[in-house]
Automatic annotation (TrEMBL):
Keyword entries, A-Z: Endonuclease, Hydrolase, Nuclease, Nucleotidyltransferase, RNA-directed DNA polymerase, Transferase
Compositionally biased residues, Basic and acidic residues: 260-276
Residue ranges constituting the RNase H type-1 domain according to the UniProt record: 135-281
Domain of life: Eukaryota
Lineage per the UniProt record: Eukaryota, Metazoa, Chordata, Craniata, Vertebrata
SUPFAM superfamilies: DNA/RNA polymerases, Ribonuclease H-like
Pfam family, one: RT_RNaseH
Gene source species: Gopherus agassizii (Agassiz's desert tortoise)
Molecular function as annotated in GO: nucleic acid binding; RNA-directed DNA polymerase activity; RNA-DNA hybrid ribonuclease activity
PROSITE patterns membership: RNASE_H_1 (PS50879)
Disordered: region residues: 259-287
Protein name per its UniProtKB record: RNase H type-1 domain-containing protein
């Protein structure tokens, strides 16, 4: 049995844990479809310390749900079948059959590769942990940046607004890229929240990735890449790192762009985008 536990990270899935165990002698003699049921049950039980009572989606290339919903197979003992049903048919467990590549198939088998005993050094974070889910009772801000050419000249602006669409802050960055503008909007949101908790929403995967995936690594490297060269947008990334010290608690949350949704977060994101684009077109005049 090989399995990968993933968790939603922005709009993608991020690996959290890897599991690999050898089936005992009894399921080894079963048909492949029943081995898949045993593997799903083993994976679920091994992941239980991390998943707890949360909802779990089990994605398998076999029709595990159809097997368990049908007549009990004569190849399986009653006790084992009951154990499968107890674990895999719980309301919090959702079985999905897919034919796409399963990342668990990429885990090496016991006879592949070489022994590996090194340990990674844990690097402490020197700024407050940034959450990916909303902080209860904290205000929400929506950030965006925009860059466009008007009469051959590049205009780059950023804007921040509240959930009800009120403009909080905006500014210009002549000649800068849209990525830099989005980072500047995030910096301004951090500064606005100095001394208290804040939820910050962005539709930029780049901005989300800088905060959640790369910033702590870059800080420990001195804002250098793995090859020793300076990181892209290093100056403003360092400003972001400094601004992250100001709020007491922060969540930077990824929202989908251009959804035209009517929920509060979609509307707030749309308003931030409108304000940033409006600012980019209107050059440096207030709006």
């Amino acid at each position: 049995m090989a399995a990968v536990l993933t968790q939603k990270h922005g709009d993608k899935q991020r690996p959290v844990a890897y599991y690999s165990s050898k089936l005992d002698a009894v399921p080894q003699a079963m048909p492949p479809c029943l081995q898949a049921v045993e593997g799903a049950s083993m994976a679920l039980n091994q992941a239980l310390p991390l998943t707890g009572a949360q909802d779990v989606n089990i994605v398998v290339p076999h029709a595990v749900l159809a097997i368990l919903s049908g007549k009990k197979s004569s190849a399986v003992h009653v006790a084992r079948w009951t154990q499968w049903e107890t674990s895999l048919l719980m309301p919090s467990v959702h079985l999905q059959e897919v034919s796409s590549l399963n990342p668990a198939t990429l885990i090496p088998s016991p006879d592949e590769g070489h022994p590996h005993h090194c340990c990674l050094k844990e690097e402490p974070m020197d700024f407050p942990l940034v959450k990916e889910t909303e902080i209860p009772d904290a205000p929400c801000l929506y950030v965006d940046g925009s860059s466009s050419y008007v009469n051959g000249k590049r205009h780059t602006r950023w804007a921040i607004c509240t959930q009800d669409g009120q403009l909080v802050a905006h500014g210009s960055l002549p000649g800068a890229s849209a990525q830099v503008a989005k980072l500047q909007a995030l910096i301004a949101a951090y500064e606005t929240a100095e001394g208290h908790a804040i939820n910050i929403y962005t539709d930029s995967r780049y901005t989300f990735g800088v905060v959640h995936d790369y910033l702590n690594l870059w800080v420990n490297r001195g804002f250098l890449t793995s090859t020793g060269s300076a990181i892209q947008n290093g100056g403003i990334v360092q400003k972001l790192h400094a601004a992250m010290q100001k709020p007491t608690e922060v969540a930077v949350i990824k929202v989908r762009a251009h959804t035209k949704g009517t929920d509060p977060h979609s509307k707030g994101n749309q308003r931030a985008e409108e304000l940033a684009k409006q600012a980019a077109v209107e050059t440096d005049q207030d709006f």
